[in-house]
Amino acid sequence: MIIEGGENLFKQGLTVGTWGNLSIRDPQTNLIYIKPSGMPYPDIEIDDVVVMNKDREVVEGERKPSIEYNFHIAIMNVRDDVNAV
Fold first, then answer.
1. 3-state DSSP helix/strand/coil % of the chain, to nearest 5
2. Which band of pLDDT confidence, cut at 50, 70 and 90, is reported for residue 67?
3. Count of Cβ atoms closer than 10 Å to residue 68 Cβ
4. Secondary structure of residue 10 in the 3-state scheme
5. Which of 1, 6, 22, 73 is spaced 20 to 30 A from 42 at the CA atom?
6. Residue 33 sits in a domain of what CATH number?
7. Kindly report the CA angle at 52 between 7 and 48, in degrees rounded to 5?
8. Would you state the pLDDT for residue 70?
């Protein structure tokens, strides 16, 4: 979903270059999928996506998460109804 969401943002002109951060929480596992830092959306592949838990620990992925990951996870930790930022 990060890849598709990012491609949509890019195609609609809502982001350029490496700008913009996107995160999506899986409500079943509570894992959070986050755009990798410093990568343009058109270049992101599935292995580039960073997976984190609610304690801000990387559980999958080799890349650095978006610089805004603390903000995104903080929102999701206090708002159960928010599954994407």
1. 30, 20, 50
2. very high
3. 16
4. helix
5. 73
6. 3.40.225.10
7. 40
8. 96
Q: Write the secondary structure of 31-63 as one string of H (helix), E (strand) and C (coil).
A: CEEECECCCCHHHCCHHHCEEECCCCCEEECCC
Active-site residue, from 4, 57, 60, 68: 68
Q: What is the C-alpha radius of gyration for the chain, rounded to an integer number of angstroms?
A: 12
Residue 81, CB half-sphere, CA atoms under 13 Å: how many? 0
What does the pLDDT average to over 27-48?
Answer: 94
Q: Examine the residue annotation and report whether 68 is marked as an active-site residue of this protein.
A: yes
* Distance in angstroms (rounded) separating the CA atoms of residues 77 and 54: 7
Number of structural domains found in the chain = 1
Q: Collapsing DSSP states into helix, strand and coil, what is residue 72?
A: helix
The answer as to whether 41 is a domain residue is yes
